[in-house]
């Protein structure tokens, strides 16, 4: 009785907002209805995407999110795959033998520089090393309903 | 060729037939020649809402089987002579007619009438396919409830797939008081979700039941009603007029708050 009285006095404190709830439920169910994807298809798609991504990075399985979203009759597949670590650290860290900060410069051979050859394309080509591209944590693909 | 508009919803009981009867009558009051076709074979009701049930002799099926001429099956409204009804057969099923036959009927009617309104049955099966076969425009009726909106969405997809590009949305039975306390989806919520142009908002009105009891569409009754003027506005919008939507927001003044506090059961 007392609580009901309070609820009537402060209707905004009452968090039972069925309008927002029904909107959320509708948006979810319509995203599925409109995409014509069966739950099995979504599940196997999820598995295969994870398989590919897992080749390169370790994913946080608990924080992963994989869902269909919908706005103005366009369905999107939104996957949020938090990366714990990258699997091939050698791409990103410098590894090498004999490099240490203490080694005095005197032990190393002198590097020659030929001022006339600066900007020579042939020389630059030799210097190019393979570098790695950045990893995005979000996979997003869109399908327009037919 | 007159405009051929199908009134459909997917879910049953959201007010398709009431909408057809009222829009048909409202257009007739604007001196348009209107024919309303009941496409709900086996479960016809449009004749009841128009109060014409005692005057039905022949039906669309009789016309198609050659048992009568089209003119004989059409029932003329006595209050408005420019509104006629083509009744559905009550003793047949929805399979007793096919989309080609529907097109045949509508193309004949379209030559004479400014508007051909087709009242679709609920569902998305054969009866629905028949109803939309001849239409070039659609009116989708829904209520602010989850099941009605979901079914409306399905129907909108089917209409697009069947090349009916021009669709308008009617949100029926909205209760402004429930929207105000966040217990019902608002007009904006539903329009945003379904993403087709809104052509009408009809408030929940007990007068609608009274009018069906009498077989007299609301727009005919002399006294103005909220739902009745909503239907009149829809007819004007169909004709291309720009009409403001009814203001259905709840006036929540301090006094009314106190009043409702004491009158609401605790």
Which structural class fits the helix and strand makeup of chain B? alpha/beta
Averaged pLDDT of chain A: 72
Structurally, how many domains make up the residues of chain B?
A: 1
Q: How does the overall form of chain A come out from the CA principal axes?
A: elongated
Largest sheet of chain A: 3 strands, antiparallel
Q: Can you put this structure into words, describing what you see?
A:
Chain A is built from 4 helices and 5 strands; from the N terminus they run αααββββαβ. Chain A is of the alpha+beta class. In chain A, the strands form 2 sheets. A 3-stranded antiparallel β-sheet of chain A has the order 2-3-5, covered by helices on one side. Chain A has a two-stranded antiparallel sheet with strand order 1-4. The two termini of chain A are 54 Å apart. With 266 residues, chain B is an alpha/beta fold. Chain B has one domain: P-loop containing nucleotide triphosphate hydrolases (Rossmann fold). Helices cover 40% and strands 16% of the residues of chain B. Chain B contains 12 helices and 8 strands. At the A-B interface, α1 and α2 of A face α7 of B.
Keywords:
heterodimer, A: 146 residues, alpha+beta, three-stranded antiparallel β-sheet, 4 helices, 5 strands, 35% helix, elongated, disordered C terminus, B: 266 residues, alpha/beta, Rossmann fold, eight-stranded mixed β-sheet, 12 helices, 8 strands, globular
